[in-house]
Amino acid sequence: MSAVPISYYLVLSAILFGLGVVAFVFKRNIITIFMSIELMLNAVNLAFVAFARAHGQLDGLVFVFFVIVVAAAEAAVGLAIVIMLAQNRQSLNVERINLLKL
Amino acid sequence: MNVAIIMFFACALLAVAGAVLLILAREPIHSALALVLVMMALAVLYLLLGAPFIAAVQIIVYAGAIMVLFVFVIMLLNAGVEERTDFSKIAKFGGVPLGFLLLLEIAHWLYHSPVGTAIANGAGSSNEAADTAQLSEMLFRQYLFPFEATSILILIAILGALVLARKEQ
To answer: Cα distance from A93 to chain B (closest Cα, Å)?
Structure first.
């Protein structure tokens, strides 16, 4: 029924991951940087599902499930850190957050 | 052109547009909404790939829970327009072409890899319900230990978030 080659999904995944890396490097707002990490995780999930379909095995889908769970935990802890930083530094710009810099 | 190909290209275009919008938007809330667009498009792609359970989890957990958390924090901190900073000359003139080169290389390699020629037989096939049942069976038999470990991970994440976000006494 569906005649979309797996390679199309993989190329889309690569493009989304690349855009996530670009966002991670270019953005200056710490919340947006977190969002670009989520974008990269989403791109990897797409590759996992595509490979699972290509090989006809469901292990890839289980891994996507775990990636989503870990992303949720990471977002909760990360945003708590962001709230704490914003309270201490009065800024969300990553260039102002240089506490560990020598 | 069949329906699946058209659906794929529509969703792929939406996803890439959302990702570009995430980069170009200056307000964090616009970036967050662009990311929701990407996640919705990816959920439709998961349906096309014949993974309805993952599509549902994508919408419920990612677009629902995680992005609501992001939007909530953006509103809580009253995050405004992002400050512009100057990039170094090397990064501007060397980094961007090199990044595109890397992207092209990955795309080229994936396109010509052996798995690239495999054909998806997902959407509309009659075994989607069976797939979800089989997925749950794998999750609670073969992957039972990692599944339980993630519950401990989430417990630790809750504790960490509480300790970090709490006001100092």
So the answer is: 7
Residues of chain A with C-beta less than 8 angstroms from the C-beta of B68: none
Give the closest-approach CA distance of B78 to chain A in angstroms.
Answer: 10
How many Å apart are CA B144 and CA B153, to the nearest integer?
14
The ipTM is 0.90
Longest dimension (CA), chain B: 65
Q: What is the pLDDT of residues A54-74, one digit of tens each?
A: 888 888 899 999 999 999 999
B50: left (phi over 0), alpha (psi -120 to 50) or beta: left
Inter-chain residue contact B49 with A14, CB threshold 8 Å: no
Domain boundaries, chain B: 88-125
User: What sign results for the dihedral spanned by CA atoms B33, B35, B41, B46?
Assistant: negative
Tens digit of each residue's pLDDT (9 = 90 or more) over B1-50: 688 889 999 999 999 999 999 999 888 999 999 999 999 999 999 998 88
